[in-house]
């Protein structure tokens, strides 16, 4: 580390002001004028993306040759400082994995780590060394399009996934050529955008900010994340890109983060539109002094920082510190020693057999079985099965948002995947049009309906005012259900949808999310019993759009949610509870919970909590055992439940296993009424449960 700092100091001593400001600039490069910019040392990083909304469709493909050509130009500059190539590698590069929200449904951090390790290997093979992921925004409002990119509503679950994602991208040594520098985004509160509308403001109290929205970022910093991205939003009146308290005092001062902060797309210049900066020069000064080291795309740093320095609006020390942080990450990433990418790697490292096999495993682990009346699934004893709906012939529609490098031709179409997996003797009929589906339904023994959101309806600024299925799909479900045949409903989506009426009309429901390149095969395996579902909801599933924002770890009301009485918190036109709660998911077997044990009735440092989990069904299955607590009395109100642990276990029929959790005193800490962080003595409830609204209940004192 000292050797790196010595090299940084040596470089800083040689750099002109213009070269230093160049390191703070991240442009897109198009054509020969861009190469001249690089040869003059006027860029520290290149963002490899077609535009601000690249995640909404396919982008130009990155290549090692392309990146190497740009790198050669940068190395021709006076000091030869290499570029750091950044790209949105969100849930895979060419091998597209399930969206991050789906990954969270696995409740399996090891799965997330492996997904991002494979993504890093593929992306680095085409010259990318920096990814703008993981997204760690807590999302409680499913109207917000970017809920697809994160890990859900719970700070504990998102924190565990944050650590796993950083480990996957960066590994133990981020300088290895098959690794990526990770970026924790969007810091912070972006998921609380008002009305679920992207780029809007948010008002978040300090305790909620500290207890809910900041923990995943702190977990990423503790895991060694190299970079952090500031958010677009106005948080409590201060745009995140100008928030010195959060970017400097908290991130660096409290947590010890020593990497660099990059702005989101043009968010430095957008401080003018926010109304906190008079012009772009003022905006650049605010952002730099707040702690934003690199300006993504806006060009405000490159255009105005020299003038700001001469006018005394910023100091040379502030510029030097930002440059130091950027150079530090470049040295750690090993790009000074290995600035170029071997063009032969792409043929070896991209879309390998092992990567595809793991993508299928990931898709299997992330799908959630929500309903299975009379054990309709897996599909057995049906000779003629109709597969209908707008996703019948889906390929790239399975990818989800932010899949710039995915290719439709890599995907086995859904109809063909079903044919490959269906048992011999089963006749499959396919219908992508409602009239054809209705005609064939009368002659089928069972119906599988494939519905949901196209990826273009998910992701950045793909917000919706109605969480129902896209127009026409509910009517199609209703018409098919009226025929009287068993209906299996499969929903592809980038968010939890309000599907109350659709669920009521189907006998079985699978929530498949956007499952990625092997999603079709994984779904077929689950439907026909070659694999069993094991996913659990990382978000609460709404009954109606009007419930948003919706989340399980709410605060208790003085008039709490109960079934009777007119003066209780409620809706008059629907139930207040979610359609399906956080942590919920069925399997093809059945588990019982019994014999809750606490190692003591009083916690002194730590407490062991355990229960006996038994598979009482007729086949093997995987259960996600969850630990929840509630602080019954606090100096500030405390959530009705909080997730504090989870374990995935696989049991054979008749097998029982005691599952044990260690609950530590620090797990009970929160932001207290005086603003300090810590625990308070008193009584706590504890549950070992299959989801947030069930379980075995115990009690202890701290």
General description of the model:
By secondary structure, the chain is α/β, with parallel strands linked by helices. It is 29% helix and 18% strand. The protein has 21 helices and 25 strands. A 6-stranded mixed beta sheet has the order 11-16-15-14-12-13, sandwiched between helices. Strands 20-19-24-25 form a 4-stranded antiparallel beta sheet. The longest helix has 17 residues, at 316-332. The chain is globular, with a radius of gyration of 26 Å. The mean pLDDT is 96.
- Which structural category do the helix and sheet elements fall into? alpha/beta
Mean pLDDT: 96
**End-to-end separation:** 42 Å
User: In percent terms, what proportion of residues is strand?
Assistant: 15-25%
Residues in helices, as a percent range: 25-40%
List low-pLDDT spans: none
Basic shape: globular
| Order of the strands making up the biggest sheet | 11-16-15-14-12-13
Number of strands: 25
How much is the radius of gyration in Å?
26 Å
Features:
single chain; alpha/beta; four-stranded antiparallel beta sheet; 29% helix
Compact overview of the structure:
By secondary structure, the protein is α/β, with parallel strands linked by helices. It contains 21 helices and 25 strands. Helix content is 29%, strand content 18%.
């Amino acid at each position: 580390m000292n050797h790196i700092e010595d090299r940084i100091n040596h470089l800083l001593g040689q750099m002109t002001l213009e070269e230093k400001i160049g390191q703070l600039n991240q442009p897109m490069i198009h054509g020969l004028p861009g190469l001249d910019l690089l040869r003059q040392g006027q860029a520290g990083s290149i963002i490899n993306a077609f535009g601000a909304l690249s995640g909404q469709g396919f982008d130009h493909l990155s290549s090692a040759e392309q990146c190497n050509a740009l790198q050669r130009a940068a190395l021709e500059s006076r000091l030869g400082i290499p570029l750091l190539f950044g790209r949105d590698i969100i849930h895979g590069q060419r091998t597209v994995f399930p969206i991050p929200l789906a990954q969270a449904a696995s409740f399996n951090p090891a799965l997330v780590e492996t997904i991002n390790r494979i993504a890093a290997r593929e992306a680095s093979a085409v010259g990318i060394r920096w990814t703008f992921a993981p997204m760690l925004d807590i999302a409680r409002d499913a109207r917000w399009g970017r809920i697809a990119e994160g890990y859900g509503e719970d700070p504990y679950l998102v924190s565990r996934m944050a650590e796993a994602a950083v480990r996957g991208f960066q590994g133990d040594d981020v300088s290895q050529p098959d690794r990526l520098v990770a970026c924790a985004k969007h810091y912070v509160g972006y998921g609380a955008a008002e009305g679920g509308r992207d780029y809007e403001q948010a008002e978040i109290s300090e305790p909620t900010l500290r207890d809910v929205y900041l923990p995943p970022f702190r977990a990423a910093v503790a895991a060694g994340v190299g970079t952090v991205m500031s958010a677009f939003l106005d948080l409590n009146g201060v745009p995140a890109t100008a928030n010195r308290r959060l970017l400097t005092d908290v991130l660096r001062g409290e947590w010890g983060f020593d990497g660099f902060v990059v702005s989101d797309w043009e968010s430095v210049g957008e401080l003018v539109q926010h109304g906190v900066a008079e012009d772009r020069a003022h905006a650049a000064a605010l952002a730099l002094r707040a702690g934003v080291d690199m300006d993504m795309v806006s060009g405000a740093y490159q255009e105005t920082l020299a003038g700001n320095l001469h006018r005394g609006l910023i100091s040379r020390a502030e510029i030097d510190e930002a440059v130091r942080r950027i150079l530090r990450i470049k040295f750690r990433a090993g790009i000074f020693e290995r600035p170029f990418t071997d063009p032969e790697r792409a043929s070896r490292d991209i879309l390998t057999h092992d990567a595809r096999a793991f993508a299928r495993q990931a898709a299997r682990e992330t799908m959630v079985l929500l309903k299975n009346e009379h054990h309709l699934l897996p599909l057995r004893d049906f000779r003629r099965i109709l597969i209908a709906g707008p996703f019948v012939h889906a390929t790239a529609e399975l990818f989800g948002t932010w899949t710039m490098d995915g290719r439709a031709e890599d995907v086995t179409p859904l109809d063909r995947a079903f044919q490959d997996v269906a048992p011999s003797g089963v006749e499959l009929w396919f219908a992508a049009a409602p009239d054809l589906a209705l005609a064939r339904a009368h002659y089928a023994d069972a119906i599988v309906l494939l519905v949901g959101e196209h990826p273009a309806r998910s992701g950045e600024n793909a917000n919706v005012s109605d969480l129902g299925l896209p127009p026409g799909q509910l009517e199609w479900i209703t018409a098919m259900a009226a025929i009287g045949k068993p209906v299996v409903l499969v929903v592809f989506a980038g968010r939890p949808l309000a599907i109350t009426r659709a669920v009521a009309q189907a006998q079985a429901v699978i929530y498949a999310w956007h499952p990625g390149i092997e999603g079709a095969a994984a779904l077929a395996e689950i439907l026909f019993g070659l694999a069993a579902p094991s996913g659990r909801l990382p978000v609460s599933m709404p009954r109606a759009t009007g419930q948003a924002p919706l989340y399980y770890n709410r605060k208790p009301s003085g008039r709490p949610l109960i079934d009777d009485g007119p003066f209780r918190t409620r809706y008059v036109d629907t139930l207040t509870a979610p359609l399906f709660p956080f942590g919920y998911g069925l399997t093809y077997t059945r588990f019982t919970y019994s014999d809750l044990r606490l190692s003591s009735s009083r916690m002194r440092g730590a407490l062991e909590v355990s229960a006996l989990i038994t598979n009482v069904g007729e086949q093997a299955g995987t259960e996600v055992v969850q630990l929840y607590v509630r602080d019954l009395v606090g100096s500030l109100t405390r959530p009705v439940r909080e997730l504090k642990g989870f374990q995935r276990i696989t049991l054979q029929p008749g097998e029982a296993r005691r599952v044990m959790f260690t609950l530590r005193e620090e797990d009970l800490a929160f932001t207290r009424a005086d603003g300090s962080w810590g625990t308070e003595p008193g009584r706590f409830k504890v549950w070992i449960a299959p989801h947030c609204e069930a379980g075995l209940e115990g009690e202890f004192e701290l």
